[in-house]
Design a protein that fits this description.
Elements lengths: L1 E7 L9 E2 L2 H4 L18 E2 L8 E7 L2 H102 L6 H13 L2 H4 L18 H8 L11 E2 L5 E3 L2 E7 L9 E9 L14 E6 L3 E4 L8 E9 L11 E4 L7 E2 L7 E4 L2 E4 L3 H12 L38 E4 L7 E8 L5 E8 L14 E7 L5 E6 L2 E4 L7 E7 L4 E6 L5 E6 L6 E8 L2 E5 L6 H9 L12
Antiparallel strand pairs: 1-4, 2-3, 5-7, 6-7, 7-10, 8-9, 8-11, 11-12, 13-16, 14-15, 15-26, 16-25, 17-22, 17-26, 18-19, 18-25, 19-20, 20-21, 22-23, 23-24
């Protein structure tokens, strides 16, 4: 191609042929009013005769620009081809879908015909049974009347004959017999009222309403999008109850589909999210409760669509609900070398110290990337989540088989649960200040509070703080719940299954706290992302007779 600049001139030798590429020469003759002379192969073109001469300056296009044009044309051609393929596929889909809906329609009408035929047969059978019953009753009554009439006629004839023979000596006797016969005659004991009616109008039908309904039959409309009722929806106890309504009453709705996903972003749902939509189908009511959720992100998005037998509505306007919960990980950089930390699970390993020491040397201090604090999978970190400030040399050591959480508690209420192996020789759970020394054990200093289970030598279940212990008179549960109310200075421990209060520390926390755990010859697993249970809140408000202050530990 080229850029053309021209002006009027004289016809004649002033216009000299311009040699152009053969690929361009092949296309130029098609441009009206051009009538190019010359051979495309030679690439020599001259201005057609009879036209006013133009002084033409053909500015050649660079190879880069030409390649760009070729790329644009190729992309457009590919786009058109893709659209053509899409149109062809849509034609096939129209044929297939129309055949399917036609078959479905015929099946529905056939089902309706069958139902009507069954109803017709049942109603005809009812009429036949009613006719047979009434015919039987009337025929029996007719036969009884005929017999009574015959008996009455015979008695009448006898009475007439007796009356004519009044001079006979047997007259009184005959008259008495006739009188007795009349008294006992069936005609006088017979009811002359029909037992059944001949009216069958109660078996008439009126299909006017049904006919109007049939005449109103049409294709199923697309349902309206539901509207989520935020005022009625509830987030509590790691459950979400979502309530919605239809903007218009629709009796054709068969079920609803609920979708939800987790997110760390407040406000309207974003188009792109790392978390996928989770789907709940077949909901028959206009509300649904999701139970047993783990709130490992700050919010959840929800949307609902209504479905009739044939088609679904658009999704409702998506809503975002806050799911406040305490989420943390175990900080592997604080753990004793004999503790093998894997996300929220910890196992005591007698050889762990030596093995971890070797690995630490090999990685030249890079082993800290295994800490959940630095994990890229953590998503948006909490502003309170931070490293405890302990390097490798500051991890717990000696007989302090301890590991801390990675998220500070400096206000509000928080709850988490921990399940430990019953065969563990020693296990403890509680909270501690960040200043807890690397040699210090949970509950033996003023900077930590814990519940401690000891199965070594002498079994015990105690609450410990500042090197004081109180024996708890309660069975040891296999799962403990920990509730910390920082501002109220309350640290409570519960049986996680029954929510029985085991012990409460009352203190004035002067520093931020960290979840703290210790285990020896055993293992445990922590569950986070939990809300404070409603039952725990109620117990906390009422207070408990079993709760005690830390000063009472002896």
């Amino acid at each position: 191609m080229g850029l053309f600049a021209a002006r009027r001139g004289k016809v004649g030798p002033e216009l000299r042929p311009w040699r152009c590429p053969s690929s361009l020469a092949r296309w130029l003759p098609r441009l009206d009013p051009w009538k190019a002379s010359g051979s495309p192969r030679s690439g020599s073109l001259s201005w057609p005769r009879g036209l006013p001469a133009l002084r033409v300056c053909l500015l050649p296009v660079g190879q880069g620009a030409l390649r760009k044009l070729i790329t644009t044309l190729a992309a457009k051609n590919e786009e058109i081809q893709s659209f053509i393929y899409s149109l062809k596929q849509m034609l096939l889909n129209v044929e297939a879908n129309s055949t399917k809906v036609q078959e479905d329609l015929e099946a529905e009408f056939q089902s309706l015909f069958s139902l009507l035929e069954e109803l017709k047969e049942g109603m005809l059978m009812k009429i036949k049974q009613e006719r047979a019953s009434r015919t039987y009753e009337l025929q029996n009554q007719l036969a009884a009347c005929a017999r009574a009439l015959e008996s009455s006629e015979e008695l009448l004839e006898t009475a007439n004959q007796t009356l004519q023979a009044t001079d006979s000596e047997d007259f009184p006797q005959a008259a008495k017999q006739i009188k007795d016969g009349v008294t006992m005659a069936p005609a006088f004991r017979l009811s002359l009222k029909a037992k059944v009616s001949d009216n069958m109008s109660h078996l008439m039908v009126d299909f006017a309403q049904e006919r109007r309904m049939l005449q109103a039959l049409t294709f199923l409309p697309v349902p309206s999008a539901p509207v989520i009722d935020l005022a009625e929806s509830l987030v509590a106890d790691n459950c979400v109850t979502l309530v919605w309504r239809m903007p218009d009453e629709d009796s054709k709705i068969d079920h609803y589909v609920l979708e939800y996903r987790r997110t760390n972003f407040e406000g309207p749902p974003r188009l792109r999210e790392e978390q996928p939509w989770m789907v709940v189908e077949g909901i028959r009511q206009t509300e649904h409760t999701l139970t047993g959720l783990k709130f490992d992100m700050k919010y959840m998005n929800f949307r609902v669509k209504a479905c009739n037998k044939a088609v679904a509505s658009e999704f409702s306007e998506s809503v975002t609900l806050e799911t406040p919960a305490f989420m943390f990980r175990l900080d592997a950089s604080t753990s004793h070398q004999n503790l093998r930390v894997d996300d929220l699970s910890v196992e005591w390993d007698a050889m762990g110290g030596k093995v971890q020491d070797i690995k630490a040397r090999e990685k030249d201090g890079k082993g800290r990337t295994a800490s959940p604090v630095n994990s890229p999978a953590r998503g948006v970190p909490s502003p309170k989540r931070m490293s405890s400030g302990r390097g490798g040399r500051d991890r717990f050591t000696a007989e302090s088989y301890t590991v801390l959480g990675d998220t500070l508690i400096d206000g509000g209420e928080h709850y988490w649960e921990v399940r430990f192996e019953p065969d563990s020789k020693a296990f403890g759970v509680g909270v501690a200040y960040r200043s807890l020394g690397r040699f210090e054990q949970l509950g033996k200093t003023a900077s930590s509070w814990c519940l401690h289970v000891n199965n070594w030598l002498q079994a015990s279940f105690t609450a410990k703080h500042a090197n004081k212990a109180k024996v708890l008179d309660a069975p040891v549960p296999d799962c403990l719940g920990v509730h910390c109310d920082f501002h109220q200075g309350l640290l409570s421990f519960y049986n996680a299954r029954t929510k029985q209060l085991l012990h409460t520390f009352k203190a004035k926390f002067t520093q931020p706290l960290l979840p703290a755990f210790t285990v020896w010859c055993g293992s445990f697993q922590v569950t986070t992302g939990l809300q404070v249970p409603s039952s725990v809140r109620c117990l906390q408000k009422r207070g408990s007779a079993t709760s005690s202050s830390n000063t009472s530990l002896t």
